[in-house]
Amino acid sequence: MNTLDSHPGNEIRLLSWNVSTDSHIVEACAWIAQQHPDAVLWQGLHPDDLLRVQKLLHMHGYPAIPLPGSPHSNAIFVHDDGLFAVEDEYEHGWAPWHAPANIAVRLRGAGGELSERVLSLVSKHDCSWSATVRSIEADWYTTFAAPGYLLIGMGDWNGMPTEARLIDWRNVKDKAFMVNRTYIAEDGTRRTDDRADRILTAAGFIDAARHVAHELGQHSAQRATAGYGQAGTRQAGPQRIDRTVLSVELGASIKAYTVGDPDPDTDQHLETLSGHRPQQLVLYLDRLQNTMQLPPPHAAP
């Protein structure tokens, strides 16, 4: 059992990746398994591949309900006897495109005891074709900002972060992409759609990459996750559209956040498996344990 005492390095690791090409699942799972994650938040999973991925990762999968908008969906994988004890699983049939995969977990302690508080894990793949829909999806995320809630959400946001480089959208050759990644401002001009990032920042969530860059000096965390290769040349180029957000209470638990693989050759190979680089969040296990044992803060009177 992955307990507090036996877990290597006092770490707990979550990995997120949009692997939408079914033919690369075996290779993708091989790399994922080498990272020894405690949870895998997957986007782009075909329902028929669920059992295969479970077997390859030796983890139990909790898929989102399928919706008619796409043949792929989100899923979360955890070890049956691991640090995360699944307490509940939630369906989100309201979703306009991909339903989020959403489970509530408690953390197992050294003696197998469960944490006092519950942590929500969400794997999400936001709408690729509408900035308006992405704002709705971000609004749903704010439901996890209520006092006492703890959240780790990872996935493909399809919108830009607020610090994204300036893009001259008039020169983007893929006009459908241009429309899908922008919104019309009050002055009639098209603006880069970073509204989901702004919504969640206003709600008090931490962007993991931004946090480790500013607080821990890990600036490579803000590297691009998608938009590389031939497709990117017709679109807006490399961008950080795959992101991780956490409740502010979890900020002190963050040890590291990485995109891709530190080995350049392996990192380049990962680009052949998916149009997205994987992201990994590493937390100090003892700090997370302490937070999940603390009484939740109460709402203001």
Biggest sheet details: 6 strands, mixed
Mean pLDDT across all amino acids: 93
Give the strand content. Answer: 25-35%
Strand order across the largest sheet: 3-4-2-1-14-13
Strand-and-helix sequence, N→C?
Answer: EHEHEEEEEHEHEEHEHHEEHEH
Output the number of helix runs: 9
CATH class: Alpha Beta
Judged by helices, strands and strand pairing, the structural class is alpha+beta
Q: What fraction, in percent, of the residue positions are helical? A: 10-25%
Q: How many domain regions?
A: 1
* Count of extended strands: 14
Outline the low-pLDDT stretches: 1-5
- What would you say the CATH architecture is? 4-Layer Sandwich
Using the coordinates shown, work out and report the CATH topology. Deoxyribonuclease I, Chain A
What's the CATH H-level superfamily name? Endonuclease/exonuclease/phosphatase
Q: Name the shape in a single word.
A: globular
Identify the quaternary structure here. single chain
Radius of gyration: 19 Å
**Cα end-to-end separation:** 42 Å
Overview of the structural elements:
InterPro entries: Endo/exonu/phosph_ase_sf. It comes from Streptomyces flavofungini. This is Endonuclease/exonuclease/phosphatase domain-containing protein. It is a single chain. With 301 residues, the protein is α+β, with helices and mostly antiparallel strands. The chain has a single domain (8-164, 194-293), classed as Deoxyribonuclease I, Chain A, CATH 3.60.10. The protein is 25% helix and 26% strand. It has a 6-stranded mixed sheet with strand order 3-4-2-1-14-13. Helix 3 packs parallel to helix 5. The longest helix is centred in the middle third of the chain and has 11 residues, at 131-141. The radius of gyration is 19 Å and the shape is globular. The model is unreliable at 1-5 (pLDDT under 50).
